[in-house]
Amino acid sequence: MHKVTVYTRSGCGLCVTAEQDVERICGELGVEWEVVDVDTDPELRAEYGDRVPVIAIDGKEHGYWRVEEERFRAALV
């Protein structure tokens, strides 16, 4: 079973959209997911900077800024 992590920050419009997309797709596929605010951890903030949102699957970066739905779904099935 896969686990999806969405790295975000407060006040990020693209982050809100990505979270909604991930919630919908993961809900349909029964995949566990979580949101992590990069501003709560200096290491995450340094790693991801202005590239948020970043979507990771099983701890590996899958994409950033937008959810490419077809590619995302393919990675989860």
From TrEMBL:
SUPFAM superfamilies documented for this protein: Thioredoxin-like
Pfam families from the UniProt entry: Glrx-like
Protein name: Glutaredoxin
UniProt source species: Pseudonocardia thermophila
